[in-house]
Amino acid sequence: MTTLGVESTAREQAAAVRLGEISARELLELHLARIAERNPELNAIVSLDEERARVGAAAADEARAAGAELGPLHGLPFAVKDTHRVAGWPTTYGSPLFADHVPETDELLVERIRGAGAVLIGKTNVPEFAAGSHTFNKVFGTTLNPHDPARSAGGSSGGAACALAAGMVPLADGSDMGGSLRNPASFCGVVGMRPSLGRVPEWPLYNQWESTSVGGPLARNVGDLALLLSVLAGPDPRAPLALGDPGRAFAPPVTGSLAGLRVALSVDLGGAFEVDTEVAAVVEASASAFTAAGSRVDAAYPDLDLADDTFRTLRAWHFQAKFGTLLAEHPDAFKPSLADNIRAGESLTGADVARAYTQRTTLAERMRVFFADYDVLVLPVSQVPPFPADQEFPTEINGKPMESYLDWMRSAYFITVTGCPAIAVPAGTTSDGLPVGIQIVAPHGAERRLLEVAAGFEAALS
């Protein structure tokens, strides 16, 4: 008899299904019981369809009994982020305008999750159109932090990170423009990776050449994250910017030594942004784990002074291009902060966008040169710990006011515009027990190395 539970690793759960130690039906019921226990309070999973999930689990068991080839996620319950289109399943984007939207086809990321054998159970909650790193919307309400339900779960993949941390799902997908995978991972105490541009191809997109948002994996540990990345990664002819490495290049097991690693560690990139004192303390304390394991840790950082203007310009341009017509048709259907950001794109000129892309090129070159001397850069994921769930965003850090709902996310979105992969890994807690992660950044294309370093750090803390 198996002692498998919802807290078991995704790899253990998948192996147990594959070996017949537990059926996909039984595994689903374990997770549905946890969802019934935790989700009414936390509101992480939306559009839950238990009967459809049971049909999927039964089909998974029948496939195994028939001797079919089983994918790496065979039989694992899975809830897809509600910004990712799933055929026949409500996909609302957290917007009342799409409350009844049911796509006819899967997008590429979902194709790969289904193809790997996962059993779909529902969607995970998001902020409106995935804008802002706090998960609330008028369709489903607010997702709360599983460690303290009075706090935010982060966003935009807040439902995904919360569901993971609470044991409602073994793995989760997400997407990241300015920190949407990394911030909720830090807030909920799980692992989340923003891959390099092109590592996880996306299709369809309104603009296949737009390159600030990427899809990626979330998990409770680095090995499980590698499992999901191995499913999501790999080229596709529909995605012209996709990198060529096959997904299996990132598959577990992942082991990594920190001995001899050259680590640059900075709390605020030389005063580029304000960081809560307790978050700063956790980041600084992580240096001891690296040095104890044989790494060399220097107080160093790249010059990312162009990152703020670059990100904000490209984000506003992207939002206006994607949502401008919809906002004009429905001016009262958007939350004010998102509407303001869309309108900010209206005044941009071609010269503004060209400047932003030129600056982005400069930032990428600065990172390339910086990584000639260092293997990884370590900095905060989020500049604050989880904030009260009744706030849209933190209004101050250490008594210093935040002028907009983006100001507290610089530690994440500065990395976005470098194009480098970054992983959020749990590193400690605040004095009142709230999770805090560190962000580990590696050169473009170095996801395998990044996984090894994150696994080494994870092991050093255990």
Account of the protein in words:
The mean pLDDT is 97. The protein has two domains: 10-250, Amidase signature (AS) enzymes (Alpha-Beta Complex); 262-309 and 342-461, Alpha-Beta Complex (Amidase signature (AS) enzymes). A hairpin with a 5-residue loop joins strand 14 and strand 15 (435-441). The strands form four sheets. An eight-stranded mixed sheet has the order 6-8-7-14-15-11-9-10, sandwiched between helices. Strands 1-3-2 form a three-stranded mixed sheet. The protein is built from 13 helices and 15 strands. Helix 9 packs across helix 10 (336-344). Helices cover 37% and strands 14% of the residues. The chain is of the alpha+beta class.
Number of domains: 2
Number of strands: 15
Q: How would you name the CATH homologous superfamily of the largest domain?
A: Amidase signature (AS) domain
> Helices and strands, in N-to-C order?
HHEHEHEEEHEHEEHEHEHHHEEEHEEH
* Poorly predicted ranges: none
List keywords for this structure.
3-stranded mixed β-sheet, single chain, alpha+beta, Amidase signature (AS) enzymes, 2 domains, 8-stranded mixed β-sheet, 462 residues
Layout of SSEs?
Layout lengths: L9 H10 L4 H19 L2 E2 L3 H16 L11 E5 L26 H8 L3 E6 L11 E2 L3 E2 L15 H8 L6 E5 L5 H7 L2 E4 L19 E6 L2 H11 L29 E4 L11 H16 L3 E3 L8 H23 L6 H9 L5 H21 L5 E5 L15 E2 L2 E2 L8 H7 L5 E8 L5 E7 L5 H15 L1
Parallel strand pairs: 2-3, 9-10, 9-11
Antiparallel strand pairs: 1-3, 4-5, 6-8, 7-8, 7-14, 11-15, 12-13, 14-15
